[in-house]
Amino acid sequence: ERDRLSRLRHTPAVTLDGERVELQANIELPVDAPAALEAGAVGVGLFRSEFLFMNRGGELPGEEEQFEAYRDAVEAMKGLPVTIRTVDIGADKPLDRLSVHELRHEYTMNPALGLRAIRWSLSEPNMFRQQLRAILRAAALGKVRLLIPMVAHLGEVRQVLDALARAKQQLHEAGKPHGDVEVGAMIEVPAAALMLPTLLKHFDFVSIGTNDLIQYTLAIDRADEAVSHLYDPWHPAVLSLIARAIADARSAGKHVGVCGEMAGDPAFTDLLLAMGLRSFSMHPSRIASIKQRILRADTRLLFPHLDEVLSSDDPEAASERLFNRKQQQA
Ligand code: PEP
Ligand code: MG
Question: Which spans are transmembrane here (predicted)?
Answer without folding.
Answer: none
